[in-house]
């Protein structure tokens, strides 16, 4: 007799398989009816994940994170750490293939281990999304204002311009998925162009510009005096650049209900986007570090990447990269705000969010407008703490790493007990890959807290406590679906028939 998991509305060993039924039929089998617009194809799904990573923009504001810790050797730290992040991405992709639902990690953990833990994981992911939106707009504001000849921004000038950028992101999200997808596709072009500007620009300078500075390959294996004492903790903390950039693994999964053939498309494009960033990022960092003239000057520069490009390839190349990177990082904020709103909407649809009926509503463009607006308001509020920019990056990294650690543990447990539904994307060596991903993610959480226990440690603890209070005080404890999920599917429909077959408890 089948074992039925009361938390998920589907039998854990029912033979449910996302590879054998249509998107809408599978959605029905999981207890929902399609409410969002399923308009994203393969390239848009890839672009969604790639734009979320936002390598060039993140490099613009975070290039010195690893460089300041271990100098030129940070290239190899990036290579190893980003490779481990891709392993995490592969594991998360498999779980998203099993449950291609809006809400991503929230849905997966809720169905495998219960709503309480799933809600907390969703909360941590939302904290990471909000912190990412704030850090992105704060990071690009000085570059934008520099184009208008305004330097040395005051705190309130920084907050004000960042707020305008967040409002623009909010408006873009409210206009509809197609608009966001269009911006997203442009962002991918900008990302790839920015990488090409660095690699081609510096390669040409190294070959044809006699005034260009080119370090030897040996330079890549030195710390150039940045490490005093043990190198172990600096090496580990230098991994922050990789964890900051190669992250948000379930964003394309969160848009699963808006993606065509989601169970196949989402995992493949997510892994492809992260692997592409790993390869291109390594190449870009190699060229940048080889072009460093004086490490001290680069570490103290307001635009270190721009300075390296300017000194070797000229001002035009430096400006072109900066423009492309700024645009890409703003779109990164747009996508992360969209993802955060989908998590809120998914929780509200289940009746598991304060003011659930409001946050479960969609506008004419099928956008969860209340979540988009709330996310923008919170992101603006977070910019008030813009003086703690480095802490903000660490906070978003640890909330993502913590959420995915829980997700991976839950997924590995379900895998070991053969409780995952059938899915088209399967990992061949999951018994090795999942433990590696879990240990790596947990290790990085410990390293971040150890580096700054006051701000990062207490900040993370505060976020967890707020999530617990919200859930146990303000969130209804009984399942009370308020979206179309509360309605019974019409008997005789293709989706209804699929659910009758796959879900005997309906």
Automatic annotation (TrEMBL):
Q: What is its main location?
A: membrane
Residues annotated as signal peptide: none
Q: Where are the transmembrane segments?
A: 47-70, 76-102, 123-150, 156-176, 188-209, 229-249, 270-293, 313-339, 367-385, 391-412, 432-450, 456-474
Write the record's keywords in alphabetical order, separated by commas: Membrane, Transmembrane, Transmembrane helix, Transport
- InterPro entries, A to Z: AA/rel_permease1
In residue numbers, the region (Disordered) covers 486-506
Q: Which domain of life is it from?
A: Bacteria
Indicate how the chain sits in the lipid bilayer.
Answer: Multi-pass membrane protein
> Where is this protein localized, as stated in its record?
Membrane
**Does Transmembrane helix count among this protein's keywords?**
yes
Which named protein is this? APC family permease
């Amino acid at each position: 007799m089948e074992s039925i998991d009361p938390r998920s509305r589907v039998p854990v060993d029912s033979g449910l398989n996302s590879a054998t039924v249509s998107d809408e039929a599978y959605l029905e089998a999981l207890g929902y009816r399609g409410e969002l617009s399923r308009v994203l194809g393969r390239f848009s799904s890839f672009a969604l994940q790639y734009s979320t990573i936002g390598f060039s923009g993140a490099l613009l504001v975070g290039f010195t994170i690893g460089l300041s810790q271990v100098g030129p050797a940070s290239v190899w730290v990036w290579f190893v750490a980003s490779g481990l992040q891709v392993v995490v991405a592969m594991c998360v992709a498999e779980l998203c293939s099993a449950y291609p639902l809006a809400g991503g990690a929230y849905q997966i953990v809720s169905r495998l281990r219960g709503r309480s833990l799933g809600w907390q994981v969703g909360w941590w992911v939302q904290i990471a999304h909000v912190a990412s939106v704030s850090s992105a707009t704060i990071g690009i504001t000085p570059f934008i204002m520099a184009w208008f000849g305004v330097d040395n921004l005051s705190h309130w000038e920084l907050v004000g311009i960042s707020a305008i950028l967040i409002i623009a992101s909010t408006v873009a999200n409210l206009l509809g998925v197609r608009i966001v997808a269009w911006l997203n596709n442009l962002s991918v072009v900008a990302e790839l162009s920015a990488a090409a500007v660095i690699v081609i620009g510096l390669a040409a300078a190294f070959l044809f510009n006699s005034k260009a500075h080119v370090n030897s390959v040996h330079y890549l294996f030195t710390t150039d005096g940045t490490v005093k004492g043990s190198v172990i903790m600096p090496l580990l903390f230098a991994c922050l650049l990789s964890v900051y950039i190669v992250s948000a693994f379930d964003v394309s999964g969160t848009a699963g209900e808006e993606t065509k053939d989601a169970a196949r498309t989402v995992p493949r494009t997510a892994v492809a986007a992260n692997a592409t960033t790993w390869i291109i990022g390594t190449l870009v960092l190699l060229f940048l570090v080889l072009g460093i003239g004086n490490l001290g000057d680069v570490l103290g520069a307001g635009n270190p990447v721009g300075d390296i490009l300017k000194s070797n390839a000229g001002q035009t190349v430096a400006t072109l990269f900066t423009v492309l990177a700024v645009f890409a990082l703003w779109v990164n904020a747009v996508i992360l705000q969209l993802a955060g709103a989908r998590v809120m909407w998914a929780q509200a649809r289940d009746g598991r969010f304060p003011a659930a009926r409001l946050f479960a509503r969609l506008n004419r463009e099928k956008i969860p407008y209340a979540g988009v607006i709330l996310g923008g308001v919170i992101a603006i509020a977070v910019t008030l703490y813009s003086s703690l920019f480095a802490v903000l990056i660490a906070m978003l990294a640890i909330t993502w790493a913590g959420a995915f650690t829980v997700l991976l543990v839950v997924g590995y447990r379900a895998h070991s007990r053969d409780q995952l539904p059938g899915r088209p994307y399967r990992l061949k060596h999951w018994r090795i890959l999942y433990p590696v991903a879990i240990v790596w993610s947990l290790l990085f959480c410990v390293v971040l807290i150890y580096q700054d226990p006051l701000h990062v440690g207490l900040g993370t603890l505060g976020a967890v406590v707020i999530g617990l209070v919200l859930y146990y005080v303000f969130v209804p404890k009984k399942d009370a679906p308020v979206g179309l999920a509360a309605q019974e599917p019409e008997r005789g429909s293709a989706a209804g028939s699929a659910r009758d077959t796959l879900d005997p408890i309906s």
